[in-house]
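Type II secretion system protein N
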Amino acid sequence: MAIPSTSHASGSGWRWALLGACIGIALALAVFAPARWLAAGLAQWSDGHLQLINARGTLWNGTAGVVFSSGAGGAESISLPGQLGWTLRPRWDGISATLDLPCCAAKPLEFKGRPRSDGLELEWRDGQSRWPAAMLAGFGAPWNTLKLEGALDLSMQALVLRWSGRQLTLAGRATLDATDISSSLSTLKPMGSYRIALEGGPVPSLLLTTREGSLQLSGSGRWNGTTMRFDGEASAAPGREDALSNLLNIIGRRDGARSLITLG
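Predicted structure tokens:
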């Protein structure tokens, strides 16, 4: 009977030990990956527009401050009050996430993320949140010029976002109620309250209406997978023309008393 040589057995043992060590390191990295990795990935994905500051904890359970910025090194940066807390949990088909943001949502926001062969899908649980309109200045032009104030109430119903390469498709509905909106470009405070309704489907659409106010806004848009084409108009209520003239000159192309707005 042949007896395995000591050197052969020893070599096999070392290989198994090395494999076990590699698996252990990989599991440790997965479980204890620092929160700053998520912060770095999010900043890169958003081109610096969305940043997690002083991230603590792990990739799976962490906290951080939230900053909206006009980009890496951008001049405009707006911080949300308080901190964001997050919890990520692996699923057989992706991950589930809970976002705890006391400043802006009475209940945590939840979504499921699923990788696709050519992209990513995010399915949001129905929910409501309230955001300061001032945060829009962090996204650069034209918001940093308008410097809006007021409240943005976001409601989501069966909202699903699907990325396929650079193409984005939407299902479900999202409604944004902008309440008591004012701008540094007008002495009227507030100028009005508005509603933006986004409807998903084969050709997602957007509808802008005025709920009340001196600045009258209306318009509609269509999403083609990469950009939103929006056509609308703005005008002043009778007696408010002088107070809103400067703003109307900036937000669109003047056509008599109206200002025509075209985006995309």
